[in-house]
């Protein structure tokens, strides 16, 4: 898993891109849904954010267990396994840049083949980048799908190359070279990554990731990474449940908590 999906594969709100009005039949992710099963292409299809009455958030199927009851087992492809599951040992992908290998080995002081959050933070800071532990934790979670806060060579390589891509995107949209991107620049950056968010969500993102608490209405590079990781992670988790690409999904209480909490406790 390296980087964001290409532009055009985003998850627009309202069934269309930011400021655009596509045909009602356009799938919400900007790409064709899987062929399995039936999907509707008529104009009566529900808009993104307006699921059918039978799928309204909070509507509990008759067979569902109440809150607090023992949850069903999650796991498998697209499932919700334990966020503290052990990380499988990995190796560097063939053709990995020797500098990336050397960087990982320097951080892996005990030679265990794994580095922890502080070691990753130190390794990344050697490339003129400074990240908070929260950002490092989000990186580790998104690239391992666990909260064990350790990564191996394969995951480190993905993180390293993805950060290079995201740095280039940040620099591209930091048009005034201020070291920050404002609301409109963030909107354009997210669109280039395939994510279209409403003006309301955009304002919330800027307020959340602005180090001045929303006063400057702009975010710096490390917070830009944290912002993009949050949008990317939550969108991908939602898409796992929205198998019909309809723009709506039904979550059990347990699945919802396991989806959102890792981003809150990072």
Automatic annotation (TrEMBL):
Low complexity compositional bias, start-end: 58-67
Native source organism of the sequence: Dichanthelium oligosanthes
Region of interest: Disordered: 1-70
Pfam families: EF-hand_5 (PF13202), EF-hand_7 (PF13499)
Residues annotated as domain EF-hand: 95-130, 161-196
SMART domains named in the record: EFh
Domain of life: Eukaryota
Coiled coil: none
Lineage, broadest ranks: Eukaryota, Viridiplantae, Streptophyta, Embryophyta, Tracheophyta
Molecular function in Gene Ontology: calcium ion binding
Name of protein: Putative calcium-binding protein CML49
InterPro entries reported for this sequence: CML48/49/50 (IPR044590), EF-hand-dom_pair (IPR011992), EF_Hand_1_Ca_BS (IPR018247), EF_hand_dom (IPR002048)
Swiss-Prot/TrEMBL keywords: Calcium
